[in-house]
Design a protein that fits this description.
alpha/beta, about 45% helix
Length: about 140
């Protein structure tokens, strides 16, 4: 992923996140008693996505959401194997995360199959998947 792609992906996620967090947290970041629990699902390795996640956490901080203070993030990585994503998404649902953040189509589809009630924020909607789709799935439009 080059710098331009990274900025595009992060920009999309950070722009969408306040809307999702507002619906989840129902109040300003400092007004909530318990931290918001966010699930982050990635088909990649932790090492491959660390830069993206650092920028994501910085974007959250810029909006008043600080990991370890008023937000907790549960990370699940597919380690390059998208066939494990459904199980990882199910883990996040069992943890009762309040929001699932995904980056690309395979993890978005896995999250959408795992839950119909938890909001899903997709950082790069419309990315190509092995299914050949270049548009976001209709199933994801309602999440």
């Amino acid at each position: 992923m080059n710098r331009r792609d990274l900025v595009t992906v992060l920009g999309g996620a950070i722009l969408a996140l306040p809307l999702a967090l507002d619906g989840v947290a129902r109040g300003a970041p400092t007004e909530r008693a318990a931290p918001v629990l966010i699930g982050l699902l990635s088909p990649f390795t932790r090492a491959h996505t660390e830069l993206w996640h650092q920028a994501f956490r910085q974007g959250l901080r810029d909006l008043g959401w600080v990991e370890g203070a008023n937000v907790r993030i549960e990370y699940r990585y597919g380690d390059g194997r998208s066939e494990g994503l459904p199980e990882l998404a199910a883990e996040l649902v069992k943890l009762k995360v309040e929001l699932i953040v995904v980056a690309v189509t395979p993890d978005a589809l896995a999250a959408a199959k795992a839950t119909k009630s938890i909001p899903i924020v997709m950082a790069a909607p419309g990315t190509r998947s092995k299914r050949g789709s270049s548009r976001a799935s209709p199933d994801l439009a309602a999440t």
